Amino acid sequence: MRERLKVDLSEEVINYLWENDIVSPEVEFLKPGKLSVPDSPGIGYEINKQVLDGYLVESESILKEKSIY
């Protein structure tokens, strides 16, 4: 039997996650279970790098620096 995880979805937690969303524009819900689809190119959302960087723990570049010689 699979164990289910208990998740705290209190209003406080949902508001925190909503205010710190990593996509822009904000996801717009029309009614429960239905959301508005942006009309911009691709999937219509862009990553908010400033918010995403706030979750960054560690980074490492694997690209070599270009030599001018």
Explain what you see.
- InterPro entries: Enolase-like_C_sf.
- This protein has 69 residues and is α+β, with helices and mostly antiparallel strands.
- The protein has a domain at 11-54.
- It has helices at 11-19, 49-54, and strands spanning 23-24, 29-31, 34-35, 46-47.
- The longest helix has 9 residues, at 11-19.
- The radius of gyration is 19 Å and the shape is extended.
- The model has no long low-confidence stretch (mean pLDDT 78).
CA-atom Rg in angstroms: 19 Å
- How many E strands? 4
How much of the sequence lies in strands comes to 5-15%
- Overall residue-averaged pLDDT value: 78
Strand order of the largest sheet: 1-4
Shape designation: extended
Order of helices and strands: HEEEEH
Low-confidence stretches: none
What structural class do the secondary elements suggest? alpha+beta
The main β sheet shows up as:
2 strands, antiparallel
Task: Give the assembly state of these chains.
Answer: single chain
